[in-house]
Amino acid sequence: MLAEIRSLNEECGVFGIWGHPNATQLTYYGLHALQHRGQEGAGIVSTDGEALLPLKGEGMVSEVFTPEKIEKIAGHAAIGHVRYATAGGSGIENVQPLLFNSTTGSLAISHNGNLVNATQLKGHLERQGSIFQTTSDTEVLAHLIKRSGYATFEEKAKNALSLLKGAFACVILTEEAMYIALDPNGLRPLSLGKLGDAWVTASETCAFDIVGAEFVRSVEPGEFLIITKDGMRAERFAYPEERSICTMEYVYFSRPDSDIDGINVHAARKRLGVQLAKEVQIEADVVTGVPDSSISAAIGYSEQSGIPYELGMIKNRYVGRTFIQPSQDLREQGVKMKLSPVRQVVKGKRVIMVDDSIVRGTTSRRIVNLLKEAGATEVHVVISSPPIKNPCFYGIDISTAGELIAANNTIEEMREIIGADSLTFLSVDGMVQNIGRTDPGSKCGHCLACFTGEYPTNIYPDTVLPHEKEKVK
Questions:
Q1: The model scores a pTM over 0.85
Q2: Position 473 pLDDT exceeds 90
């Protein structure tokens, strides 16, 4: 979504590669493929076997890195990160990978997700004498590793990871090894690939495509992978819990050309559109989707309903993301700058507008207005996911129900607010069944917390704002 992105945003994307002479350059390309997961900051830490070499900055990947800068941190291994701030806020000190130097060895960490027990762990560490340099919950992991009483780095890291609760897909780099870990519920996506003899990991498989790597497998929940000059071996830091991957990865966050646990995102979204057309029948002349994440669902809806799909809206690729605008008025103007209706397609037509989700309602209202201003006689909004009614504590920037339109209004009230002629959402069962996961259980391996309010992990009291506590079970 566009102006609403400020309320629905993935925290970040991670990338890592070990054993390639052009590791730093390939990390740049990998981060470029993951740019949609975060635009506030980007960083790379590489190693030549003797030291960890950092390069990071605020802004887009193409703004932070130049060929000259990348050449200065050349190495045979590197990890990278693109960031959208949720926990910890913005600021260069919070841009990852976070690098920590000490007399007993250095380490760098890239982390995707949020820790629901970060406040408790941080308080415990501070009482033991730790001093934190950032407001990112990722730093907690580094302190836990360094303060662990185990003898080897591997055992220290596994012990530290076992203490974390919540969502975390982590890549850790030292001069001697790269380590990969995924939380026991598998809340965030993380894949493993190979490029010749080099090992590669990334939040999404689209990053493998851009660097020429071959997908090997998904990283398993609770798994701890160790990659050195001697190869890769898999261990565990925790037993896997009930699989609960974020459903919004399939609905919105991931790129259509990525595969998550063997399921292509475009194909899953298209099936959601097909199911949506089965659940609701509307008389209309044309189907259109909100660029880009809703196009696949719109195509599916069109094919199932028999109503022709048309490019009813064009996205301006050269406008910055609207969530960074400081006021509501500027955000709404940003939507108008970023999307333009194709007048000859929608004029005099009854339009079905397919979108992936509604968070605040700001963008939906503005797009409905744009289509009607362009001459659409009716605008029917159909959403390829259920209403988002509950906050997320695992790395999506919706930490309070107060900002969610569906948490505070009926569907009819929402329809009136956005100005649509009708408003329909996909059912929870329809969404889960048509994404295509085969994990056992009624949830089929999904986290559905933002839709149902059922959280796969314990939510610690100080994770929730005081006025929200009665809503979180």
A1: yes
A2: no
